[in-house]
Amino acid sequence: RTLRIGLIPGDGIGREVVPAGRRILEALPSSLKLNFSFVDLDAGFETFRQTGAALPERTVEILKKECDGALFGAVSSPTTPTKGYSSPIVALRKRLDLYANVRPVKSVASAVSPIDLVIVRENTEDLYVKEEKTYDTPQGKVAEAIKRISERASSRIATMAGEIALRRQRVRDSTGSGGAAKKSMVTITHKSNVLSQTDGLFRSTARQVLSQPQYKDVEIEEQIVDSMVYKLFRQPSDYDVIVAPNLYGDILSDGAAALVGSLGLVPSANVGDGFAIGEPCHGSAPDIQGKGIANPIATLRSVALMLEFLGEEKAAAKIYEAVDGNLEGGKLLSPDMGGSAKTDEVVEDILKRL
Amino acid sequence: RTLRIGLIPGDGIGREVVPAGRRILEALPSSLKLNFSFVDLDAGFETFRQTGAALPERTVEILKKECDGALFGAVSSPTTPTKGYSSPIVALRKRLDLYANVRPVKSVASAVSPIDLVIVRENTEDLYVKEEKTYDTPQGKVAEAIKRISERASSRIATMAGEIALRRQRVRDSTGSGGAAKKSMVTITHKSNVLSQTDGLFRSTARQVLSQPQYKDVEIEEQIVDSMVYKLFRQPSDYDVIVAPNLYGDILSDGAAALVGSLGLVPSANVGDGFAIGEPCHGSAPDIQGKGIANPIATLRSVALMLEFLGEEKAAAKIYEAVDGNLEGGKLLSPDMGGSAKTDEVVEDILKRL
Ligand SMILES: CC(C)[C@H](C(=O)O)[C@@H](O)C(=O)O
Ligand SMILES: CC(C)[C@H](C(=O)O)[C@@H](O)C(=O)O
Hints:
The structure is a homodimer. The first copy, chain A, is an alpha/beta fold.
């Protein structure tokens, strides 16, 4: 099988980590019988400055017509309001209907109270519909934004969460890891005590989906978003799959990343039907850009996550193991992990372990 | 001076901690020349079940006409959607125009990297305007909520944040605590990379307010809300005052509470012009209700915070010191703190230290 992968480095360290993602795909053992072809695609603030569009039509077209998946680096946000600029990754998620943003957060296995959870974030609506308006009043300006929650989007994201819970259970059962201790659970996060209609719809739809017979072994739990953040920090090992509307999911996944030491470790995948874009959770990190010291692990894990959603679980497992080997080895770590290795040195150590 | 204080226990452990708040006010040393009179007021889910209104008009009227301040316990949220029920504390904040929710989070002084920050949360608008609607489409139900941000509310909350930063600096200067290490800073939290108009308005208004000459010694910093949560967990001692729109402030304050060990320690005050309601950050905690083991400290600190905003800083300082004494003593702690003391025992230890 040959997979065609779009490479969208974007801005800042995106340009340093996306090439690492390409390298690991090219280095996968030939026994997997997987081949890759690549196409370089533009997006980001730099692209906006040069062309007036943060997400060129060509990028969307090629992804739609030619590609099986893609890898997205990071984009810089302008530091001052910039007319006409709007985030290309948010647009891409909508244009390709990548309705789920999946963010696994896992501590090294040797941790005392190991964290192994995944945040399943709805990726197309909520406040991210970006329908805003501003008007003048005698007391000054007022701005409004729409938060939109639909039964359809809530239903498919809850289905995704349920399926991920089942898949995680299968993996735990087959590897014996986690054992009897960890059972499958989906925690529905919302704020329906204030937003009874919007978050209420998310909550009731997700409950309904997860009450279907195929999920009978998956426990349903609920948390109000503020309390979820509190619990995430106090008892992170209690959680398995957390499903949330777009904005809460955005916040929770950065919070969860803080738990495992560095944003530089945390991958994500933007997933639709038959298409996935891997995307490290970190940003463009202008402070370290160009120094060659960015942690490539979030990107390498995002590559693996993309492969999982394209049905290539074996190849994904290879990458995860090589990355875990590097982390447990503890010798070739990037500065965010307390080490002094360069991006390339970390990549090479991981390639050796493939 | 005699202050008249409304007591609104609400539901669950609210009924166990609000009496503790009354006791500490009555026990303040007479040298402070402060007297208190009290009025018991109803609100909450239990009140809703009995009367059909979660916030009776009488409660609002008496607070407006007779009281100088109040103490609010906690309310239970219904576990299933309940027609006609809506949170009385959210309503109270709006009815009394208590536009700021102030939440100081402080670790014990002996901590290695001490946390001493305060979250200043806008308290009247954002998604809490609760303007929602639901409609049917061929793909199912869709619900929408309005997020409203005004220049006026953003401006007054930024002013409050600036004033609090200056007051904290004065206290640090006068006590020598913090020393040269900690300087005044207000961190504006928003998501203007996605919500350019609403959060953009919050951001630009706050920047403008804090750029005025009276705040020249207060550094202005900004964080996108997801990154703020990450940083809050990774480098909490970097922060001083954090100002945020309503919902982000709600989430951040629970997150910050997790940092200092227990929600049972974290106070808040709902502040308007000349009026303040103290409110512990924890909820009604149905799991421990009636057992007499709720931690009263969040409430006692909320009483102190209320007194601060009513201009009684000396009385407030007395309470803070007595509470710190109890915590540093480390002998009479409630179960959430790893101890086995009952609510009353904690209260008595603190009263002795007044
Ligand atoms: C850059 C920003 C628009 C984006 C988001 O909010 O989704 C980022 O925070 C993310 O999580 O991918
Ligand atoms: C109970 C709930 C409506 C409330 C809020 O969201 O403001 C609570 O979380 C708080 O922070 O006081």
